[in-house]
Design a protein that fits this description.
The structure holds two protein chains of two kinds. By secondary structure, chain A is an alpha/beta fold. Chain A has one domain (3-122): Rossmann fold, CATH 3.40.50. Chain A has helices at 16-28, 39-48, 65-74, 87-99, 109-122; strands at residues 8-12, 32-36, 53-57, 59-60, 63-64, 80-84. In chain A, the strands form two sheets. Chain A has a four-stranded parallel β-sheet with strand order 2-1-3-6, sandwiched between helices. In chain A, α4 runs antiparallel to α5. Chain B is of the alpha/beta class. Chain B has four helices and five strands; from the N terminus they run βαβαβαββα. Chain B has helices at 26-38, 49-56, 77-87, 122-135, and strands at 18-22, 42-46, 64-68, 92-97, 112-115. A five-stranded parallel β-sheet of chain B has the order 2-1-3-4-5, with helices on both faces. Chain B is globular. Residues 1-13 of chain B have low confidence and may be disordered. The chains are: A alpha/beta, B alpha/beta.
């Protein structure tokens, strides 16, 4: 996957803190990012926008990442699907996408993990 | 290069308008959020008042709440506005309503009420946020 081929990333997660910070991270890497708060949002997004990559939690409030993957595959859409189960994994996926993104010096995804953990700790 | 939220405490960049938008209609939320991002604002999206209150409890700070009234979950947009008024009094509140005459709403709960669908509210929102900065 080359950076100039990836334009729009759909981040599907029902965890508001994690979703918003991963989306912000990816935007700052230069991507167009759509945020879906669950399966239904993601389904609508895919129907209305050209999405190149889906980064989805396996568990969402109204469905699973596997449901979303099945939905996409059943429509033969050319979308790369990355399912994640933990914050660390999700941040690593975002970091990998950023390494292929338009910025010269992407920042380390561990910083993203640390920041989200810090926010959860101060709650 | 580090993203802004690594540069200090979250929400510490005072020149940047940070917006929390709570709206369960996905396409409407996405359109409104994108419009505000094009103003250079930082926007966090949630689809319910419950989710918004959950996020606010993480000490993530915002300058502006833009909220729908009727959303799924235990709390609605008016509950969210009351919570923000009591716990985050520095935030301004914009309520999005289907119909201005839908129901009586305490005018102290919001700085601005807009009727959906939203058209050309960007300039009004800029004035709302600039009024505060100019006064400060």
């Amino acid at each position: 996957m080359q950076a100039d081929e990836v334009e729009t990333i759909l981040v599907a997660s029902s965890d508001a803190l994690q979703r918003s910070m991963i989306a912000k991270y990816l935007r700052e890497c230069g991507y167009s990012v759509i945020e879906a708060t669950g399966f239904d949002d993601a389904r609508i997004a895919i129907g209305h926008y050209e999405v190149d990559v889906v980064v989805s939690d396996t568990q969402m409030r109204d469905g699973t990442g596997f449901d979303l993957s099945t939905y996409i595959r059943s429509r033969h859409l050319d979308i790369e699907i990355i399912l994640t189960q933990s914050l660390v994994k999700t941040a690593q996926v975002a970091g990998d996408l950023c390494e292929q993104g338009p910025l010269d010096q992407p920042y380390h995804p561990q910083r993203l993990v640390d920041e989200i953990k810090r926010l959860r700790a101060v709650r | 290069m580090l993203p802004a939220f690594f540069s200090g405490s979250v929400g510490a960049v005072k020149d940047l308008t940070r917006v929390l938008i709570a709206e369960d209609e996905f396409l409407l939320r996405l359109d409104a959020a994108d419009s505000m991002r094009r103003l250079g604002w930082e926007v966090v999206e949630v689809s319910s008042a419950d989710e918004a209150m959950e996020l606010l409890r993480y000490r993530v700070t915002f300058d502006l709440l833009v909220t729908d009234i009727d959303m799924p979950g235990q709390a609605d947009g008016l509950d969210l506005a009351r919570y923000v008024r009591s716990a985050h009094s520095e935030m301004k509140i914009v309520i999005m309503s289907e119909d201005r005459a839908d129901r009586p709403i305490d005018p102290h709960l919001f700085e601005l009420m807009v009727v959906k669908p939203l058209w050309n509210v960007g300039e009004t929102l800029i004035k709302l946020m600039e009024a505060d900065r100019n006064a400060g």
